[in-house]
Structures are given as structure tokens and as C-alpha cells.
Target: XK-related protein
Amino acid sequence: MAAFRDGFRWLCTLFGFIFYLGDIGSDILLSVQYFRRGHVTWAALTLTFVLVASVTVQTFSYAWFKDDNKESQTNVKCIPTCYLIGIHLLQIGICSRYLRFLKRKFKALCSNQTREEKDYDSGLAADLSMLRMFETFLESVPQLTLQTYIILEHNHRSNLQYISMAMSFVTIAWSTVDYRRCLRSSLRDTNEMPSGSPTAIYLFYKIFTITPRILSLTLFLILSYFTIPAIALVWLVGTTWAFVEKTNFCTSRVLEWIYRAVVGVILIFTFFNIRGQNTKVPMTVYYIFSVTENLSAPILLALLKPESEGTDYFLPIILFILFSNSIGLIFLAVYYSRLHHHVHPPVPPSERIADEVDGGPQVKNVQKMTRFNHFLQI
Model:
């Protein structure tokens, strides 16, 4: 059973790598198509999202490799600095991580790993999951918003455009589920996420709250380009909240500031617990604001741009925003009320020590704090 589970996870990682390449590749091809057809602005924006996300992801990937080389206490050979610089300058650092992880896990399927090696591989998986989260909200989600705007406002459609949007959507869904699985399997105080209904409910909660967000922002962009400064203001609020919460994710102050800026981008589209604390009130405030904004988009568009009511997309989008917001909030309520329990597994005897006062069992502080412990929580 364990071998089957490990093999399934290896296949999931392989599919994740394929989806990543497909998402990036389709966006690059789409930007080339736009350029050839004379849509220089669209080409530039499409490529900009790819480059900004890639540079950000490569920066964090390089920094984490360097940190791991310094702190490594395993028998895993450290990666030479020149090699690290080269692959990240070529923007293939995350590809190298995928290939490295797939190779190690494939070997593990044919042999037994030590506890140390398993912990190391779990760290590699967690790093990949976090980097994919960065890439998802810096590239896939904005890309989906941009392409939706181009289709609705300019009535420009192409097969490659649909492929790019489909790959972005798959990437959002895949990285969301993969991140939740990695988070729950990496933290000591939670059991690994079951593969049944909890996964589906969490996925539906995220998809049905992110999608109307994308559509409402698209409608605001159709209404006026002044939406861009408004989005920047929302980003600033989210980034400021990350500064107020004093996140401590990175070992470098500059990287920490970049991380907080990325958190601000993520909070434009969905909510995450940025400090691992009880955030019932912030989450409630966030979704009240988000739903209000989502519903106001079609209303303002109808009032300030009445001709939009005659388009073939106006009514379907209004209905979908209403439906998606409602369903998304229902899944959110179900997940956090029924499935978001932190279950503490029994403490293994090997991890118990005698209490000096009353002789009772006491848990050793055996969990090593990793960067994953300080990342976005669900």
C-alpha cells in the first residue's frame, strides 16, 4: 500500500511538472502570436506576467538552495554555487528542482530510504509546492484575468488563447490542492490530508471564490482603466497587512519584503492565513469586502456603461458571479467548520521523555522548524 501511495505521488509530481511547462509554454506561444498579429500591448503584458513570475520564483529558489547548502546536515551532496547561479539565471531553477525531486523519488521507489532522506525529500516537495503557489498567483491568475478581458472587451479569440486559459485554470486547481496536501503532510500537528471529500471541498472553495474574483476584476477593467490603480491599492493594503503581521518567512530582509509584496498579490485574489494564527475575523472581513466588490462590478458596469447590457456575456457573467460566490462561501463554511481540524496524533514512545517534575510523559521538541512552517497557512 505504501509503495502504491508513493508511486501515485510520484506520478502526481510528474503531472504537476507537465502542467507547469504547459502553462508557461502556452503563454509564451500566445505572446508570440499576439506580436505577429500586431497586438504588441497584449503580447507585452502576456510576456510580462511570465517574466515577473519567473524571476520571482527563481530568486526564491536560488535563496532556498543557498540556505539549504549552509544548513545541510544530511549526506546529500551540496550543489555548487556556480551551477545554482547558472540554472537560475537561465530561469530553469524550478525545472531543475522538479527533475531532482523526480529522480530521487523514483530511486526511492526501488529502495528503502532513511528517515533523514525522507525528511529531505519532504523538504524538496514543500519547496516545489511553495514555488508553484508563487507562480500561480503571479502568472496564472493574472494571465487568466488578462485573457478574459481581451476576449470580452475586444472580442479577440483564438485556439491558443483558449489553451493558455485552460492551462492557467488547471495550474490554479493543481497547485492549490498540491499545496494543501504538502502543508498538512509537512506539519507535525496535522494528519496528512485525505484524498476524498476534504480535498474536493477545499478545491471547490478556492475555485468558486477565485473565479468570480477574476471575472469581477475583468468587468472593472472593461469599465475603466482606473481600475488598475484601484487594484494597486488593494495590493498595497494586503502588503501592508503582511508588514503589520511581521511575517518571518525569509532569512534575508530584502527577500522578506519581496515575500510580503507577493503576499499582497495573492490577497487580491484569495485569502490565506499569513501567520498561522486564528484569522476568523480577518477572513470574514476579507470575504465581505471581496463579495461586495464582486457583486458591485456588474452593477457599476450596467449603470456607467449601459451598452454592456446588450453584450452576449453580460447576463451569463452576472449569474455566474452570483452562483459562484454563493457556492464558494458554502464550501468555505463546510470546510472550516467540519474539515479543518488540527488533529494531534499519538506521541510515539520514542519521542517521550520523563518529566522532571511529575514523571509524566513529555514530548521532545523533535520537529525542526522549516520555511514551510512560516509560509501561508490554509
Q: What stands out?
A: Confidence is low (pLDDT under 50) at residues 343-367. The first strand starts at residue 352 and ends at 354. Residues 115-154 form the longest helix (40 residues).
